[in-house]
Design a protein that fits this description.
The chain is an alpha/beta fold and 254 residues long. The chain is 39% helix and 12% strand. It contains ten helices and eight strands. The two termini are 12 Å apart.
Length: 254
């Protein structure tokens, strides 16, 4: 069993990938077209702001579930603000009061289009235990925010689906590959390998999970696949994953 997920950010993100590919919502459309051709389900975690003027509702034309991904990546974030949040609140997402307001604002963005926000991933995995409780209080039942080789589990009324396959943005090296950033067994949070090596690691991990009866939770960013090689690698990944049963995050059964 595999759960394919992707993260989509509003235009306010402004990262180098976004500058290269343009709208992440449009990149997600191409991403979903490829998954559709391979009969694969998907969950996209998306900024609430994307529903305001970026046409995110177009994604509903595909076999996709949309989950919350904060309203706009914590607003204007920089290294100083990130440091202060970690120091003061032990969480890049900020204070409990800020988190509560941001979660509700994201939820309202979904509701304007008649959508229930029952799944969630915090931008940059920047959550803490308080975040999980706040999400539970507004009806979120599925959270994919943790990293590591562990199976999905339930805590309280929430099912957590840890990302147990190395994440593309955290693992693929862009530019020259040298000994200092080469790690063929990269974890979810460190190590840099070539795109082809990352694909081999992904295949190995998925196969191992299947053999052990563990669901594979995969995070592959539409913007990364677009910026890398205009989805050529992603088409190979989708073809490989099509051999397995895929489900949306909310379809998990424990």
């Amino acid at each position: 069993m595999i759960f394919i997920t992707g993260d989509v950010h509003s235009k306010s993100m402004g990262g180098w990938e976004q500058k290269k590919v343009g709208s992440e919502v449009k990149a997600a459309e191409e991403y979903l077209k490829i998954l559709k051709k391979n009969n694969l389900s998907c969950t996209i975690f998306i900024n609430g702001k994307c529903f305001e003027n970026e046409g995110a509702e177009k994604l509903l034309n595909y076999n996709v579930e949309l989950g919350g991904h904060t309203y706009d990546n914590f607003g204007k974030m920089n290294l100083l603000k990130s440091y202060k949040n970690r120091k003061l609140f032990n969480c890049i997402y900020g204070s409990s009061n800020f988190q509560k307001k941001d979660i509700k604002k994201t939820k309202k963005s979904f509701e304007r289009f008649g959508l229930k926000m029952i799944s969630w991933r915090t931008h940059c995995f920047g959550s803490n235990e308080k975040t999980f409780k706040l999400l539970e209080n507004v009806g979120v039942k599925y959270i994919s925010d943790l990293l590591g080789e562990k199976p999905p589990f339930k805590k309280g009324e929430v099912i957590h689906l840890p990302i147990n396959i190395p994440v593309d943005q955290n693992t693929i090296i862009y530019g020259k590959l040298g000994p200092s950033n080469r790690d063929p067994f990269a974890s979810c949070t460190k190590g840099r390998v070539s795109p082809e090596e990352w694909f081999e690691i992904l295949k190995k991990r998925v196969k191992n999970n299947e053999n052990e009866g563990i669901a594979s939770i995969v995070l592959i960013h539409p913007s990364t696949m677009a910026a890398l090689d205009n989805f050529r690698l992603f088409k190979k990944i989708a073809l490989f994953l099509s051999k397995y049963e895929s489900k949306k995050i909310s379809e998990i059964i424990l």
